[in-house]
Amino acid sequence: MKLRNVRPHDIVVPEVRVTAHWEQDLFQMFKDSVKEVGMIEPPLCMEMDGRLTLVDGTHRLDEALAQGLKLIPVVVVEGSPDDLYFYNLAQSRLRGKVKASNMVQVIFHLWKERGIDIDEIRRRTGFSQDYIEKLLTIGEASPEVKQALDEEEIGVGVAYAISRCQDIDLQNNVLAQWRLFRWTIPQTEQFIRDVYRAKEEADEVRPAPVPSQPRTVACHYCGEEHDLAHIANPSICPTCSGLLVAMVREQRRQEAAGGGA
User: Fold this and answer.
1) Residues forming CATH 3.90.1530.10 domain(s) in the chain
2) Dihedral angle over CA of 26, 29, 35, 37, nearest 10
3) What are phi and psi of 74, to 5 degrees?
């Protein structure tokens, strides 16, 4: 761990990260403090491949850039890309309130993109397996559900209940209904169960599909297969039908006899 003075523009900010959120009055006090006495607590960065990537201190870096500071002190540690995300999770939780949507992004990124299993994430974060699995489920949710979580319109419990629906359209429908009635988590879960039960009942009474008609059919008289559109269906009595069959057979017998001569 080293302390350096670096240019704020040289620090890379990861797209996926957890950032602490402050109340507006506290955030204004922080801005005034940086302006009056400078950067008291340096941001934390990780050095990888000769580049500095931000681990913790988004607000401090943003304020340094906004005030046009040429150099700022930063604490530099070494580590891997995986370490970067675990450091970010640990540090952000100590700073104050964090968005659940940020937690979903980072945990899902570690699992989906970095290939880290749930046990390793649990060991290195201290999160329960149940909480991690909920965040991973939300990570597969529709964009509308994740946006509602990011805007803190819904919490993790409701987001998880909706995300368990495998049908994306159903997720969005449940979210729309939730916005109307503002259900609790159990009420949201009950509504989803009712929807699935109604769907199952509808499937049970749904009539069997009508079998498709064959494209070809055998002629009643000659026995040859013909396209259904080319088959005539005249009204004919049994006597005439028998005569026609006899005529066809006699013609074939004569053709066969002639061919044999």
Assistant:
1) 1-98
2) -110
3) -135, 145
Which CATH number fits the domain 99-192, given the four candidates 1.10.10.2830, 3.40.50.450, 2.60.40.10, 3.40.50.1110?
1.10.10.2830
| Helix and strand totals (H; E) in the chain | 11, 9
> Per residue in 233-254, pLDDT tens?
656 666 666 677 777 778 888 8
The CATH 1.10.10.2830 portion of the chain extends over 99-192
18-59 per-position pLDDT tens digit: 987 766 666 677 677 767 766 678 999 999 988 999 999 988
Residue 248 has a pLDDT of: 77
Domain 1-98 CATH (choose: 1.25.40.10, 2.30.30.100, 3.90.1530.10, 3.50.50.60)? 3.90.1530.10
Residue 11 has pLDDT above 80, yes or no: yes
CB atoms within 10 A of CB 49: 6
For 111-127, b/e burial (b = at least 16 CB within 10 A) is beeeebeeeebbebbeb
Pairing of strands 2-6, 72-78: antiparallel
* CA–CA dist 120, 83 (Å, integer): 12
69 Cβ contact partners less than 8 Å away, ≥ 6 residues apart: 8, 39
Residue of 68, 63, 127 whose CA lies nearest to 93: 127
pTM for the predicted model, two decimal places: 0.71
CA–CA separation, 157 and 141 (whole Å): 13
